[in-house]
Amino acid sequence: MVNPTGATGPVLWSYLLSPDTKIQANNNQQIHEGLHHGAQLVVHRYGDMLIDLSAGYSGKSKKIPIIPETNFLTFSLTKPYTSVCIFMLIEGKEINLDDPVGYYWP
C-alpha cells in the first residue's frame, strides 16, 4: 500500500486511517501498479456526502487529471445497478411492480 499522500512506501498503522483515507491509499496503490489510470468515487448516504475522492488521470496520456468535476462516459452502465436497487425495493416491499410509475414519480 502506498502512503495516502501519494508517496510510495508502506503505510504503517493503516488501521488508524479513516475509511476515505484507506480508499484513497488503495486507489493510489492501484494507479502506481498500473492497474488503471485513475478513478473517482463519491458515496452519499441519507443525503450526506461521506466520501468524495478523485485521483489519477483520465487517460494513458496522463495530461488531464481527474477532479471532482470530471465527466465520464458511462452509457448504459448504470442500468444493472438500477435494476438491482429496484429489486431490493421490491424484496423489501417498499415498491410494487403492479403500481403505475406515476404512483412513485414525480
UniProtKB/TrEMBL annotation:
All copies of the Beta-lactamase-related domain together span 33-106
Record organism? marine sediment metagenome
Q: Which is a Pfam family this sequence falls into?
A: Beta-lactamase
Q: Which InterPro entries does UniProt cross-reference here?
A: Beta-lactam-related, Beta-lactam/transpept-like, Beta-lactamase/esterase
Name of the protein: Beta-lactamase-related domain-containing protein
